Every structure is written in C-alpha cells, then in structure tokens.
C-alpha cells in the first residue's frame, strides 16, 4: 500500500526532493455501525483512526511535518502533547533519524502514552503546568532555531490530517451530511474542513464534542483549556451549519462504553466525544453521519481498567465458571 504522501502527493506541500518519512499511515477503515445506527435512527459510520501506526490520527499530519522538517535540514523536533502527538512525533522522528523532545503537562497524561513516547526514543520532559504552558515553552524552544515545532500550529500537520476527509469522500462516494468529531485544540476541525473543501464534495455540518470541564476532563487527549485553533475551528463549525457541544464526563464515558459494547470498537475516551456530541444533537432520521474516532483505547488503559468490572477469579471448574459468567 502506498504511503499517505505518495497517495495524495498532488494535494500536499511536497516535491520530488522531499524525503518521505512513513510508517504506513492513513487508509484507515470507515466502519459501519449497525447497532448504533438502529438505535439512533441514522446511517452511522465510524472513521477508525486508531488503526494508524501509533494508534491515533496524529500520524497523518506527522508524516508530512517530519518529512518537511527533514527536507529543511532539521536535526530535532519538539512538541507539547497530551499524549498522542508525543507518541507520533517520537515514532516519526526515530524513523527519520532525528531527535524528538516532547513536553507533557505533569500528571495530566495517560501513563500508557508517556510510556509509548519514551519507548519510541523521545526525550520526554514533564512540565509543571498545563498543556498551554507546555505549548508556549515548545514554541519558545522552536523559535531558537534548534528544533522544528511539530504541533498542529505547524501547517504541515493540518495538510496531512486533511487527507482523512479525502478518504471519507472516496469511501462514501461523497461527503456525509454530518461529521462528528472531538474538539481539543481545534486543529483537526480545521483540517477536516480544509479537506472537504479541497475534495469539492461540500462541507458536512460539523458537530464538535468538547469537554464541559476542559482542564480536568477524564478525556485526557482533549484536556486543553485554551484551544490553539479556537477561532478558526469555531468559524468552520459555524460556516458548516454545525455546532459545538459541551459534554459532561459521564456522557463521554457512556458513549465510550456504547462504542465498545455495541460495535466492538475500543477507542480512548476523548474519541467518544464525537458520538456523545451526536447523541445530544437533533439529527434527522436517516441522516448519513460519520463519527471520527481519533485514538485507540489502549492509549488510556488506566481508564479502561478503572471503568470496567474487575475479572472474577474461580477454580477451573465448569460450574464455577458458568456461575461467575452469568
């Protein structure tokens, strides 16, 4: 299968001299959701971005950002992250043979994501402060000229991420009526709006699910108090005729369970903000809807363990097993 850059080369800011740094990202499944479709009375699809190499949608943008950084002669990249950007930056930097420094707010990132970035060779630095403070520090370091910033403020990230919209249009034969997705920093909202515009398929109504308590939500990947792309993201939502939905953690976790129990898709809680937002939105029966699931559930194994029943211990006896499993 061709890399994302090779597949969409004519639509990306690359040239023949751009070294392609790839791990086989993109071409993720668009899954039907028959049980949720029936319950909600709509035609629902799930864009399963957890199938990307490091388990999140960030890989789409990182392949372009790191390829362009390498083309420019960079020897190091830097990012601030609530977890997924860190893992992606670490993986693509290792693939490119450059150093990665990732700044994470201390105590606010799922342990599995901290471990993933470190295992992939990044220098993980935990900042005493919020994500927004970590991002400010990453930008200041990049301004010194020693590191290339690979957060979504780097437009090459958005260029890569817009390709998910191309894939949806290809798979459906056009744009859906509604696109629901999580709203953390807002970069992905901008990227999807850009992608649908470039595909010429019309812009779906964007339904963006954000945490009502952004700074403390259980959905750690969208635990961003001050979205870097807020103005542009909100403009895209308004232009599309969609809206932003503020979600309680209980609603996000319920949608997370529904996706796992009814459709067999274990995403991280932040991903389920797309379905939670859709559930609180009045959508006409029969509407074609795509929910974007941005990251794999194993990215936040602590929540999965905490929010589910503890395994039962029994003797290897059929009667005991039958009783325990009833």
Mean pLDDT: 95
**Secondary-structure class:** alpha/beta
Tell me how many strands there are.
10
CATH topology value of the largest domain: Rossmann fold
In total, the number of domains comes to 2
Distance between the termini: 45 Å
How does this model look, in words?
By secondary structure, the chain is α/β, with parallel strands linked by helices. It has two domains: 4-56 and 156-306, Rossmann fold; 58-155, Rossmann fold, CATH 3.40.50.1100. 42% of the residues lie in helices and 16% in strands. The protein has 14 helices and ten strands. It has helices at residues 4-7, 34-40, 58-71, 84-96, 111-119, 131-143, 155-161, 163-172, 187-199, 230-240, 249-263, 273-279, 301-306, 318-324; strands at 30-32, 43-48, 76-80, 99-105, 123-127, 148-149, 178-182, 205-211, 243-247, 288-293. It has a six-stranded mixed beta sheet with strand order 1-2-10-7-8-9, with helices on both faces. α3 packs parallel to α4, α3 (58-71) crosses α7 and α9 (187-199) packs across α10 (230-240). The longest helix has 15 residues, at 249-263. The chain is globular. The mean pLDDT is 95.
Provide a brief overview of the structure.
With 326 residues, the chain is an alpha/beta fold. 42% of the residues lie in helices and 16% in strands. It has 2 domains: 4-56 and 156-306, Rossmann fold (3-Layer(aba) Sandwich), CATH 3.40.50; 58-155, 3-Layer(aba) Sandwich (Rossmann fold), CATH 3.40.50.
